[in-house]
Every structure is written in C-alpha cells, then in structure tokens.
Specification:
The chain is α+β, with helices and mostly antiparallel strands. It contains 22 helices and 15 strands. It has 3 domains: 182 residues, no CATH class; 123 residues; 143 residues, Chitinase A, domain 3 (Roll). The radius of gyration is 29 Å and the shape is globular.
C-alpha cells in the first residue's frame, strides 16, 4: 500500500476502462502487471516536489514545461555534491599604506573613503546614475537590476519575474483542477495556506518563497557546474537557439518586438537575454546534476546508519480495516455502532463478514457511481483489499490510530474503532503484524532498449520475428562493444542510454524524471521475464553488463544493486536529504530596492498584474 494513498477502497474501485493503450511507452508495456491486464491504479500527483506537465506554446518542452523550467530529476536518484573546491592562491602580504606613507592609522579610513568616492564619481560621470538605479531586460547586472544574489551569482529582476510567473501559473492551474483552495478574485495576501514546513502563510508569501527556492535550487547547481567546468552540449546550444527563434516568430505574429512579447508574458524587465541566460543556466545545471546522480554513491554502512537513526520511517505495521461513513452526519451514533462491531471481531474473516452490513452506505455509493456493478461484487472487492501497511509517519490515518498501531502494548489481533471527524468516517482497525521493515528484495539497473525498425510499440501483443530480433541483437552488440572499448563506467553507460535507448520511461526524453536508462527499486516480477531473471540473478555484481531478449527487442543491461526494499528507501531518502542540504543551504541575499520592482500577481478582478511592492 502506498503511504500517500491510504484510501485503497476508493482507488481499487476506480475504473480502468479509460486507459488508452496507444499511449503506453515501451517500459510500461514491459511490466508484467500491464501484460496480464491488471487494473491500472489511478493516482494524483502530490505536490512535495512541484512539477507541471504540459507543453508551452513558445518554448521547447524539453526544457520548458508549461512555462516552468523542469530539470528531469529521478525521485530515486538524488544526491549530495562535494564541497566547493577551496582557492589555493594567496595574496602576498603588502606593507600597509599607514606604514608606507607615514600616515597615522586613525586617518587611513578617511584616505580610503576619498579614493572610493573618487571612483564612484568617475563611474557616474561615464555611465550616469541610471547605471546604478535602472533595471533592464538585457541582463546587465548593474546594482539597480539585481533582485537577488544566490551565493555569488546575481539574479536580475527579469529573471525573478520569469520564475515567479511560472510558479504562480502552475499553482493557479492546479487550483483550477481542485488541488488547491485558491480564490483568484481575492487578494492573495488575504488567503492563507500551509507551506512545506507546516507553517501557515499567505498565498502571496508562498508564491514569493517558492520562486526564491526555485531560483536557489537551479543557481546552486549552476554555480557548482561552472566550477567543475561543465558546459553546454552542441544539441543544447541548438535547442536554445530554436527556443529563441520560436519566441521571435510568435512575437512577430503578434506584431510586437520579442522583448515586449516576453515582458508581457513573464513580467517587466524579462527579455530575450533573460530567456537565453535562463536556458543556459538550466541546461548546465541539469548536466551537472545528471553526472552526479550517476556517480554519487553511499556505502552500505552509511545507509544502515541512516536507517538506525530513522527506523520509525521505514518500519511498516500491517492491519485490516473497515471504513464506516457517518450515518446522517452523526459521529457519536456511528462510533457507538462501530464499537458494537468491534466486539464481534476476533479475526480478519470476522471483519470481512461485516462488510455488507458495516459498509453498506459506502457500497451503495460505489455502485451508484458505477465503480461496481452490484453490492455483492463491491463487497468482494473491499474484502480483497482489506489489508494495508503504513509507517509511523502515515498522515492519512488520524494520529490516535497510528499511535495505537505502533504502540508496543497493542498486540496482534487487537481491534479498535477510531473517529476521523475531518473525513466523517469511523475506521475499525485490526492489527495483523507488528512493525517491521520491508525486507522484500528489489533491484536497480540501467538498460538500453534496442527495437527493430518498424515495430509498432503501441500494441501490447508485440511479436517479433527471428529476423527482427537478430537485427536488434546486432545493434545492441555494437553499442555494448562501444561501451566496453571505453571507460566502462556507469556514467558512460548512462550517456549511451540517453543516445540510443528507445525506452523513454527510463531516459530524460520522457516525463518520468529518470536519466540514463535507470530503473530503481524494482520488485520481483514487475518487468518481463528475461529482464527480471537477469537482474535478480544472485551472482550479479555492480557493473555487470549483458544483453537479454524480450518481445520488445533487446535490452542492454547494467547492474547496479540488489537490496532489501527498506534499505533502498533509506538510500533514496538519504540522497534527497543531502541534496536539500546542498541546494537550500546556499546563501540568498535580497535587495530591497530591486525587489520592490518585481512582479506580484493580483486577483483577476484587478486590471494591473504587472508590478507592485514585493510582499
């Protein structure tokens, strides 16, 4: 059971008839569950890691997704970077001016001030006062145009406005679909929400905070990438030019200059130079991330130490449960009835027998909505999904219920009812197992999928001829030979996957966030048989490669690891933790004068949505 989607009874009744097999990618087809026609589970995106999938009208979606930059970051492959290299050069000691010129120490300050004033006057004479005070769309970093400084990198007003527009647009888009309670006709300073730290803030403050965090995230990676000599690829340079040409074409079609079109879209002082700089920084940051996402490893000792310090997050308690909706909104009467059911339950079978009676209103609702054809089949489905597992950090259950399940005094077979007033439901819980880590073995690999020419990947019943398979195997062998003739590192294999693999699910050409053919934490039987058997072979060790056939083509395999599920989860979370410490640990300095000129979104009833005082 997914900890974020506790209400399985609802989701398992969701119809899978709308699934369109024509849109299934090769990797999804490889999964045995799909091949056997299992019901597809419908899930909704959580917002812990904000992303929005949708193609922008004017910018290449490989970099811009619905007007928001999105580095495709694998959820299971985040990392910590090394510390910034320290400068080794040192300034030679010089004799102080006071000693050199015989000036007393208390007068040297005045001498220095006069020198500084002379320099300022000279600059103003040449450049004018606007150099210091006036923002611009050309990404000239004069003092009046710098809204922020992340570590050592200045960020212009226009760059801030670009990211701010993207952040606000995404939140409002999701609000339109019911994900957030935002009234677009009301001042955002007067509407409150809860941020990722659990603190209550206004939506206006959240928009600003999330914008700064996004800039901080990308800029931190960009700075480190520059330090390490990471540059743009020729393909990325081409993509940037194509994006800029697309903007120019759109602006021309509207009979405006490209800078005006960009400013109208993203905010004042955001121009062509801003977009170009943003794309360059994002690509370079992504290049660095991808490199380290492959190379950064944690030792077994580090992973186990992390587990020992955070056991409660990785130990699951298994229980059976019934959901009983309030009768006539009467919490007290419903809880009393459920306490009566509790006295009748001595086993899971007893709970299952109660489903038609205790969950009648729930069943009637599901049947009326078409999730089940009749009450009997609905009860059977609820019975089949009566068990669940959660960690102590589970938030979908009321706190008292979680504490009860994990309490050492609660024994296997104990039963208790809990009132969830926020959802108008009473849960009846039966403890099945004591808390324990998930020891199921999972594996992590990289793969390059080679498919014969002319194969229709939209069909689930793909059947390759011997000739087609031989053709694919020949291509696969050439690529593996190329890998073996080089450095033979995981990073080199990942680069080849990016270049040759037809599986978009495991590469950055898709929307999964994976890079370099990566599949992490895969459970037994998830993938097609040959893929699975090769990966689960006990003789496998890190760096092993090979070629396996399937009905989709040939898979060039690279073995990373096999480990218990709880250790894989620990490693994933450790990478995320260290990445956050790196990215959000960098310094951010705001410049009040320039920040007062940045964009602040207004309610839709307002005619002015361009600039206002920063919140």
């Amino acid at each position: 059971m997914d900890e974020k989607d506790f209400d399985l009874q609802n989701e398992n009744l969701a119809s899978s008839d709308e699934h369109d097999e024509k849109n299934v990618q090769p990797a999804e087809q490889m999964q045995e569950a799909d091949a056997k026609g299992a019901d597809e589970k419908v899930t909704f995106e959580e917002n812990d890691n904000w992303k929005f999938d949708g193609e922008a009208q004017t910018l290449n979606s490989n970099v811009i997704e619905n007007d928001v930059f999105e580095i495709h970051i694998p959820e299971s492959a985040k990392y910590e970077t090394a510390e910034r290299p320290k400068k080794t050069a040192s300034v030679k000691p010089q004799e102080t001016p006071a000693k050199a010129k015989g000036i007393k120490g208390d007068k040297i300050h005045f001498a220095l001030i006069s020198v500084v004033l002379a320099l300022v006057i000279a600059v103003l004479a040449v450049l004018g006062t606007f150099y210091y005070t006036k923002p611009n769309s050309d990404e000239r970093m004069n003092p009046g145009n710098v809204a922020l400084k992340v570590s050592e990198t200045p960020v212009s007003i226009g760059m801030y406005n670009y990211y701010y527009s993207c952040i606000v647009n995404n939140y409002l888009t999701y609000a339109n679909y019911g994900y957030y309670d935002i009234d677009t006709s009301v001042d955002y300073n007067k509407q409150k929400t809860t941020n990722s730290d659990g603190k209550e803030v206004t939506w206006a403050q959240l928009f600003k905070d999330e914008t700064i965090k996004q800039i901080q995230y990308i800029t931190t990676y960009y700075e480190k990438a520059v330090d390490e000599g990471i540059t743009l690829t020729s393909a990325q340079k081409k993509s940037i030019n194509e994006n800029l040409d697309s903007l120019k074409s759109t602006a021309s079609g509207q009979n405006v200059t490209v800078d005006k079109y960009i400013a109208d879209t993203y905010g004042d002082y955001c121009g062509q130079a801003t977009i170009k700089k943003m794309l360059e920084q994002c690509y370079i940051a992504e290049n660095y991330y991808q490199q380290l996402s492959v190379n950064k490893k944690f030792s077994d000792k580090e992973i186990k130490n992390f587990f020992n310090k955070n056991k409660e997050d990785y130990e699951n308690v298994t229980f059976a449960y019934l959901q009983v909706p309030y009768e006539n909104d009467d919490a007290k009467a419903t809880l009393e009835k459920c306490n009566g059911y509790v006295k009748q339950i001595k086993s899971e079978d007893d709970m299952k027998k109660l489903i038609p009676t205790a969950c009648k209103s729930l069943i009637d609702n599901f049947v009326s909505q078409g999730y089940a054809k009749d009450a009997e089949s609905c009860a059977e489905l609820l019975s089949a999904n009566i068990e669940a597992s959660i960690t102590a950090k589970e938030s979908s259950l009321v706190e008292d219920a979680v504490n009860w399940l994990f309490d050492d005094s609660t024994k296997i077979g104990d039963v208790k009812a809990f009132d969830d007033s926020s959802n108008k439901i009473v849960y009846i819980l039966y403890k099945v197992k004591d808390p324990q880590p998930n020891t199921e073995e999972v594996y992590s690999v990289r793969q390059i999928l080679i498919m014969p020419d002319g194969v229709d990947t939209s069909k689930s019943d793909v059947k390759l001829t011997d000739k087609q398979l031989a053709e694919a195997r020949k291509k696969a062998q050439k690529i593996l030979d190329k890998y073996n003739s080089g450095a033979k590192t995981e990073l080199e294999f990942a680069k080849l996957a990016e270049k040759y693999s037809k599986d978009t699910e495991s590469t950055s050409s898709g929307t999964s966030g994976n890079y370099g053919g990566y599949y992490g934490g895969v459970t037994q039987g998830t993938m097609v048989e040959n893929f699975n058997d090769w990966s689960m072979d006990d003789s496998r060790k890190y760096g092993d490669t090979g070629i396996v056939d399937s009905k989709y083509g040939c898979h060039i395999m690279y073995f990373i690891s096999k480990q218990p599920k709880y250790l894989f989860d620990c490693e994933t979370d450790l990478k995320e933790k260290t990445e956050k410490e790196f990215t959000y640990g960098s310094s951010v300095k705001q410049y009040k004068g320039a920040m007062n000129k940045t964009k602040v979104t207004k309610p839709t009833s307002s005619s002015d949505d361009s600039t206002a005082s920063a919140q």
